Amino acid sequence: MTDTATPAGLDPATLTDVLRVAGTPGFDRLQDQIRSTGGCSDPIHLMGSTVTRDRSTGQVLYSYATDSEPGGRLRVACGNRRASRCPACAWTYAGDTYHLVRAGLVGDPDKGTPHTIRDHPRVFATLTAPSFGPVHNRLGTRPCRCGTWHREDAPELGTPLDPETYDYAGAVLWNNHASELWRYFTIYLRREVAARAGLTQKEAREESRVSFGKVAEYQKRGAVHFHAVIRFDGPEGPETPPPYWASVDLLTDAIRAAAARVHVEVPPADGHSLRALRWGTQIDVRPIKTFGDASEITEQAVASYVAKYATKAAEISGSADSPVHCRKCRGTGRSAVYNRAGSALSQCTACRGTGLGEDLARLEVSDHARRLMEACIELHVLYPERQLARWAHMLGFRGHFSTKSRQYSTTLGALRQVRADYRAAQHRAALGLPDPEQNPEATTLTLAHWTYAGHGHTPGESWLAANIRRDIAESRELARQELPMRLDMEGAVA
Questions:
Q1: How confident is the model over 2-41, as pLDDT tens digits?
Q2: Does a structural domain hold residue 388?
Q3: Cβ contacts of residue 359 below 8 Å, gap of 6+?
Q4: For strand 444-455 and strand 44-54, is the pairing parallel, antiparallel, or unpaired?
Q5: Are 178 and 286 in the same domain?
Q6: Residue 435 domain-assigned?
Q7: Cross-referenced InterPro entries, in alphabetical order (predicted)?
Q8: Residue 341, exposed/middle/buried by CB under 10 A (0-12, 13-18, 19+)?
Q9: Is the pLDDT reported for residue 83 higher than 80?
Q10: Each residue of 64-75: pLDDT tens digit?
């Protein structure tokens, strides 16, 4: 029997739940809650209460409890950075990343960087993984090795020409050690800078600083590569100018030399010889211009590019977007108790020591991604300390997707705190509560108690959240398009 879509474009079960949700007494309040989360796909449910009192008199100024909320719960945004899991929260994360990167390029005193930072030498560097075997690709001027001119969305792009000879073990081990490769790169970069300046490492540190902000991106073939903004600063950081010898050319040469020096050794294991992991030969380093032409990369383009990929993960290569490891043992394959001899931890009974909690054969992933995930499971037994089973859905990568050096610019935590403070001030103003900044003597005391009560939406609520999220996105896009027109009109009137 074929499933016929309803006039509303929904399957019957979802439509039934939409009608149920719309008919509940607290429907308007439910809409307000979902709208306050931006249309979050997987909100956190909280139960509890909060009371605000005047500290000196004990008078209750404000009280709130979730008893009056729909279902007795308050929904708050999940905060997931991944666009495949929650587009609404990923949009917020991308915005924070954009401002963090941009503050390190154009300067923002409120975010810890002066505007003079624009005069510092800056480059946008891309470090990639080596080849693990030929794959289908789009070469632009000539067809792929298979003889086909692949279209841009061809599913075979990034997959091996010969899966039987492709080095899947090398690919996942490289992903797994990518963060260590980057750590060694930053060490060698400072050494190469000192060598090219004709200084000792101590003298170079006394005259300059190298700051960076980076993001990890998956290629179609499932290998991680890094995009990084790398900047020369003075000895005290971004507030001081870099020395006379610090130039874009010196920084570019140092980056290439440092990348060539880096290697991380993976010890031999059963059936696997010693591996020396290195960066790939395709290293791209471009100067960042304040204003560029078609051949130059600008501050705006860099910040937008980094922010875009900060919300992506391994799903671009056809992998799963959620963990597949055993939840009981957290992918270790070991129990929390010792075996009978008392010499080692027992094998996990849930996954039988594999660390796997899902049947990879049944997952809706590409064949190439499945082979990479299977390689993670096989290598987990040989390298248990690398936690490859736990990170199989990430194809072995276990690092942070976006990182920065201490003095590059502000932090994501600081940006979140500014947003939280702003919303708290709005909330106080709406309730008529005293502002501690304007009236320090009028102190208040807030007592709150919250408990976790679940997460997610019913099918009808998910449909409602998706529509609210779409409306919010359309409003943002209209506002973005109208801003240049409004500025032009204001300029003409002035």
A1: 444 444 567 888 889 899 999 988 899 999 999 999 999 9
A2: yes
A3: none
A4: antiparallel
A5: yes
A6: no
A7: Antitermination_sf (IPR038500), RepSA (IPR046828)
A8: exposed
A9: yes
A10: 999 989 999 999
CB 26 within 8 A of CB 461: no
Q: For residue 67, which amino acid is it?
A: D
Alpha helices in 238-336 (DSSP H): 248-261, 299-309
Spatial separation of the C-alpha atoms in residues 92 and 106, rounded to whole Å: 21
The identity of residue 50, as a single letter, is T
Q: Which two structure tokens, joined as six digits, stand for 20?
A: 């149920």
Q: Which residue has the tokens 């900047």?
A: 231
Q: What phi and psi, each to the nearest 5 degrees, are found at residue 383?
A: -130, 65
In DSSP terms, 147 is beta-bridged to none
Residue pair 43/35 in contact (Cβ under 8 Å)? The answer is: no
Prediction pTM value: 0.85
Question: What letter does residue 68 receive in the DSSP assignment?
Answer: G
- The mean pLDDT of 47-58, rounded to a whole number, is 88
Which of residues 344 and 391 earns the better pLDDT score? Answer: 391
Q: Given pLDDT bands bounded at 50, 70 and 90, which one contains residue 144?
A: confident
CA nearest 133: which of 174, 88, 177, 165?
Answer: 165
**Phi-psi category of residue 160: left, alpha or beta, with phi > 0 → left and psi -120 to 50 → alpha:** beta
Q: Output the six-digit token pair for 255.
A: 């980056």
Q: Report the domain count for the chain.
A: 2
Q: Closest Cα partner for 47 from 402, 383, 452?
A: 452
Look at residue 117 and tell me if it is in a domain: yes
